[in-house]
Amino acid sequence: xxxxxxxxxxxxxxxxxxxxxxxxxxxxxxxxxxxxxxxxxxxxxxxxxxxxxxxxxxxxxxxxxxxxxxxxxxxxxxxxxxxxxxxxxxxxxxxxxxxxxxxxxxxxxxxxxxxxxxxxxxxxxxxxxxxxxxxxxxxxxxxxxxxxxxxxxxxxxxxxxxxxxxxxxxxxxxxxxxxxxxxxxxxxxxxxxxxxxxxxxxxxxxxxxxxxxxxxxxxxxxxxxxxxxxxxxxxxxxxxxxxxxxxxxxxxxxxxxxxxxxxxxxxxxxxxxxxxxxxxxxxxxxxxxxxxxxxxxxxxxxxxxxxxxxxxxxxxxxxxxxxxxxxxxxxxxxxxxxxxxxxxxxxxxxxxxxxxxxxxxxxxxxxxxxxxxxxxxxxxxxxxxxxxxxxxxxxxxxxxxxxxxxxxxxxxxxxxxxxxxxxxxxxxx
Length: 429
Prior knowledge:
transferase, lipid metabolism, elongated, alpha/beta, Rossmann fold, seven-stranded mixed sheet
């Protein structure tokens, strides 16, 4: 047995200036570190080369997606232990040249180069997508949505389960089923919107049609659902037909900016606004305001990040941007509320359900791991690894209060000032 693991552990600790909290198992079968600790498996020298050429989160992500790195033990434990050790400069993570400017790191880097070699940078995995130069045009939004959602409906069924809801569930108790919690979330949205038979609902970013079907079946409303994903639309239309709801539900492949057949009595936007982008958010809010009848309600369900002391230094997450949501931009909840009110809405309620998303993500990860072979066959091993890492890391981020998720209820209040909400709005009658 060789000594690559011991050398690698020593050099990485020298580079980081702190002990590694995990065990290292290297490509030559050697191991180093606490024997009881979970292991970071370095399958080949290419994994280290990726980190040398792209230090930080993006290099680690490329090695993980390509299968050059793996984890032996509990994924959540390793992610928690490693989260504070990766230097990160947003999407501009330090290059090898910048790293070598640090005198204290040069010896460690030279040792890593001797251990692994340093040819040309390894090509990124094919699952990586380049961030477009101009975000949130109709063309780039459609491309980004296709990258994320047109992975295959069978793959998403494996992860999401029968509910096919790809947003935070609303848990009555931690041991409830995922399907029960997703049903409760859809019902909560319907109650906040005060849906009644005969009303018109616009579901923006309708996904696989779960909200549209639930609202039509349980509340008798006429629903228009819009998505940019053709695979989602085909799946949603079949669900609508199978439920016998074609007279109430229409599913369109359409950009929300192109919806012109208002007014609607209510609008649901569940897990869609994260794709809109900071520069386009006011336009998004004004479009939805325009489509509502006076007195109509909007339920905006959206992930939020914590505000920075200096917002100008904020950068998108390098891994999420390259592999998951190439158009995704998170904003603090206060910014979202401000933009909705600038568009003319009166914000009447904000409910944080952060812990609910952590529970939801852990269930999705469990589904993926339980049927890993099928998921990897359907989407490809690299894409399945992307989803496993992204969902597990996101669960920890919600649990650690680094990100949150909020349901914002806003009203197009008429000139009379009568918003139409009960005096005790949280009863949602």
